[in-house]
Design brief:
Rossmann fold; globular; 327 residues; alpha/beta; UDP-galactose 4-epimerase, domain 1; three-stranded mixed sheet; 40% helix
Length: 327
């Protein structure tokens, strides 16, 4: 198999590309490098610079490298930004996916793995979110991911393509420091950013119906996530003709924002008490994955805990954003 990984120079993409390469898969990366960094990838991985919206480029990449499977991670992914720029998100995420699938069908590629998100569920009021929980997204980002799943499944059924949709929960950590998430958009990097500026971590809302009043989330180590992609890719290879797999990727365990802030303080040595602000619109009180289906179908389960996520993320954050030592 030769896999084309779109967005493969990004934070998650580079982990997936390295995991698949280490397992003996041949990998080619297509990335516009708007947020990706080619230096994250080892030299044996070919990087094609460009966008999935460029049909000619995609055609050349598929044919020139004799691609037999695609892992599609390239997308815009900030929820708040999607509310402000819905046209950009629909163009990049859905039009880009349409162009890519058109090229995949034309090239006769028969394996397609799609990076989806727990954002497709919206704010369900359930203890554990299963794959059968109604998908009711509340942001343009979540809408594009859900519509993307529909399109992937429909194309797979119509053209005999084995497809998979992986619904990520909250991704954190790093397999090595140079692969760490360098943007301050997710909660752990947001805490680190505040620490680096000598400010207290910020918590949005402490009056939720949870044990300590703060939101509860399911966090997954990015290295575990990468291994789940490898397991899903191999599942696709085993399929004969069309077949679809849609699964959550998480740990099945909840951690509150306050618990996470306490762990960040312990790991970083910066113990300023968190500042509590008002709730953010659209935040669910609790979002924890049911992970039984992915274990049943792929034999995969997460092995890394939240402390390892925070410690590895902090090591990477310091590499990219040097922070003055405490004291």
């Amino acid at each position: 198999m030769t896999w084309l990984i779109t967005g493969g120079a990004g934070y998650i993409g580079a982990h997936v590309a390295r995991s698949m390469t280490a397992a003996g898969e041949r990998v080619v990366v297509l990335d516009d490098l708007s947020t990706g960094v080619s230096e994250r990838l080892p030299p044996e991985i070919t990087v094609v610079e460009g966008s999935v919206l460029d049909r000619r480029l995609v055609d050349r990449a598929l044919a020139g490298h004799q691609v037999t499977g695609v892992v599609h991670l390239a997308a815009k992914k900030q929820v708040g930004e999607s509310v402000e720029q819905p046209l950009t998100y629909y163009r990049e995420n859905l039009q880009g996916l349409t162009v890519l699938l058109d090229a995949v069908v034309a090239a006769g590629v028969r394996r397609f793995l799609f990076s989806s998100s727990a954002a497709v569920y919206g704010v369900p009021d359930v203890d554990l979110i299963t794959e059968r929980t109604p998908a009711l997204p509340i942001s343009p980002y979540g809408e594009t991911k859900l519509a993307g799943e529909w399109l992937v499944r429909a194309a797979g059924k119509a053209h005999g393509i084995a497809t998979g949709c992986l619904r990520y929960f909250n991704v954190a950590g790093a397999a090595r420091p140079e692969l760490a998430d360098t943007g301050a958009f997710n909660i752990i990097p947001m805490f680190f950013d505040r620490v680096g500026r000598g400010e207290a971590p910020r918590i949005f809302g402490a009056d939720y119906p949870t044990p300590d009043g703060t939101c509860v989330r399911d966090y997954i180590h990015v290295a575990d996530l990468a291994e789940a992609h490898l397991a899903a890719a191999r599942w696709l290879v085993r399929q004969e003709g069309a077949g679809d797999l849609t699964v959550n990727i998480g740990r099945g365990e909840g951690v509150s924002v306050r618990e996470l802030a306490d762990l960040v303080a312990e790991v970083t040595g910066h113990h300023a008490p968190p500042v509590v602000g008002p709730r953010r619109a659209g935040d669910a009180a609790k979002a924890v994955a049911s992970v039984g289906l992915i274990t049943e179908e792929l034999g995969w389960s997460a092995t890394r805990g939240v402390r390892e996520m925070v410690e590895s993320a902090w090591e990477g954050w310091q590499l990219h954003h040097p922070v003055a030592p405490v004291g």
